[in-house]
Amino acid sequence: MTTGAFDFTDHSHRRYNPLTDSWVLVSPHRAKRPWLGQQEAPFKPDIPEYDEKCFLCPGNDRATGGKNPKYESTYIFQNDYAAVKTDQPSLKETGDKDSLKNRLFKVQSVRGNCFVICFSPKHNVTLPLMSKDDLVKVVGAWQKLYTDLSKQAIEEHKPFKYLQIFENKGTAMGCSNLHPHGQAWCLETVPSEVSREFKSFDKYKAANHTDLLADYVELEMQEKTRTVFENDTFLVVVPYWAVWPFETMVVAKTKIPNITSLNEAQKRDLASALKILTTKYDNLFETSFPYSMGIHQAPLNATKEELDHSWLHLHFYPPLLRSATVRKFLVGFELLGEPQRDLTAEQAAERLRKLDGEIHYTANL
Predict the structure, then answer these.
(1) What does DSSP say about strands 248-252 and 340-341: parallel, antiparallel, or unpaired?
(2) What is the extent of the structural domain holding 117?
(3) Most buried pick, 65, 109, 146, 202, via CB within 10 A?
(4) Is 181 tagged catalytic?
(5) For residue 33, is it within any domain?
(6) Residue 33 annotated as binding site
(7) Can you give the CATH number for the domain in which 180 is found?
(8) Domain count, the chain
(9) Reported pTM
(10) Is 313 assigned to a binding site?
(11) Catalytic residue among 13, 157, 181, 309
């Protein structure tokens, strides 16, 4: 065994993720190896403010018929290619419930609805290029959708239980339309990743008589080595257990169960956090930075127990590793063993923290 002090910036170690009860392998010394992998040309879009061929621009025809109104702010409509539907035949159970097939090949019917959320009527902007006031409108649209679907679940008996709001930004994340937009999928079940977090929250509270994210926020605010930005309501950190190189989490400092619980000042704080973080991302490699972002919060019409284990937070998963052209892939050991990263969360946070919150590179968006 090699003697000497353990160096977290140079020696391999595993970090535990209490949200999902999983581990990530950290191998910081691998960041020193020469890169001989795939490199691509930086994506520098040259697109207009309005695109007559875009299915999301104001006043344009949509892919399956119909026409967008000439909207002037954030606009939400039902997804023309929804992943789940409200009305479909029920799934009937067949065969012996105790059979090997029913034991191993489990299946559930899932109903729901999906929505597209156009952040802006302008085709050539992204979140960091929008004004803070416009981002407040985006947060307000998320709130309204959450409230409306909660009412529909009760008043119209719609099969709505959980609203997963998310954004895939950039072609690297599979985004097929460059118009600034996100999505919201509303299901009659709580998705697996969220359910896994809820179970971890319950397990932690039963063992420690406190909220997992309350303790986590307190610890991060004490150490500050992984903090990227904070305001009165939200803390932006590279999680201690992050998998993606520049993964971040925007977490409420106090227990806020869902997005509708935000008051006007807190809405502005969330808008500010979104703008500053995504601007730092763009400045990191001087490119329109791709990511997948999602909001985790309480289910619709949550029970007291569900509210008790809900804590509003947002996950950002960006794929870029070394530059605008080099991406992180989960392959090999990461698919067959466990996730692995080549720089520590502290190193990633320091790089993001040093970047300012104003765009300083030339980008024709």
Answers:
(1) unpaired
(2) 47-87+107-354
(3) 146
(4) yes
(5) no
(6) yes
(7) 3.30.428.10
(8) 1
(9) 0.91
(10) yes
(11) 181
